[in-house]
Predict the 3D structure of the following.
Amino acid sequence: MNRVVITGFGVASPIGNDEETFLKNLKEGNHGFGPITRFDASQTGITLAAEVKDFPLEKYFIKKDTKRMETYSLYAIYSAFEALKMSGIDTEQEDMERFGVMIGSGVGGLGTIQDQVLKMDAKGPARVSPMFVPLAIVNMAAGNVALRIGAKGICISTVTACASGTHSIGEAFRNIKHGYSDVIIAGGAESCINKIGISGFAALTALSTSEDPQRASIPFDTKRDGFVMGEGAGVLVLESLEHAQKRGAKILGEIVGYGATCDAYHMTAPSPDGEGAARAIKEAIKEAGITPADVNYVNAHGTSTQANDKAESQAIETALTKNAYVSSTKSLTGHLLGGAGGVEAIASLLAIQHQFIPPTANIQEVDPEIKANIVVNEAKETPVNYAVSNSLGFGGHNAVICLKRWED
């Protein structure tokens, strides 16, 4: 079996589009929430979102690219290029038939679907764009990344709602571990801050109706009332240890475990006892070959909904010990849906590299029913050797990865 290491990452997020900015805001607990600017949201009942700001489109794209690719694909490609640059991989020197891409998305080109359906309804089927299908389908973040870099190995887009990014990383880990690939670019991407995206989640009462950015996404707080919609992408370069060492790569961290389960309980609600999520955590640490007491940090799914946070806390209590510090970086980034797992894997990696626990920001009172060891409001400097990152999706999907600090 191959050991699987991380040699690069790239991020497009509401709190930064480069390592330095993202890390600074993660440490300082600076959120990325503000009024929705992408459309007039006044009739939705929702005021705030976590939009990607100052996206450096010109770095890798020309104007025509925005017509031929949906925004979530642009975020994925940008993050993949940034991750490749950090990794130092020269694709000219690689066996690209053993170089894969696994980038998930929960919804894909939802903005295109919205706009083209309205156009068809108003002007007739003949006016639907010939680019509708390639813009809208969920697999095109992975497909476009592979096309751009010439990756001819496995190319898959996992679609498991909000667990998509973590499932993609976990499946890439297993693929390399068992020898099918040398390198895989893995993560998640999403861009659903549009009228139908906000309206749909608002109809589920899943979104926070707060107008105060300081009290909108407050996971584990007694007064939490839903999540803030985020957007962006998080992408890792995963390699077999042998491949990374052969080319003299700088190793940032190691993935050592993966758990994937299903609640089989409800379409949108988690099992109240967190049983499915607990099993996924246990699977990940079992594969890692460690004990529950070895886990120092849990990057929780932590959506700031009443049902999720209570069930996930129960899952963490069941699977781990109270020594594990817990936080939800969705208090800073909002919820990136299928892109969440990629961005949160990067947050977990940075926590390991820089030996700190990111805070759960803007908490006034932790819900007394939540017994997990929540780090609130300020980052905590502490040794972090193992971190677990949880993602839980509608449909009962649970995905957990376990990351380890790199040691020669």
About this structure: The chain has a mean pLDDT of 97. The first helix runs from residue 19 to 28.
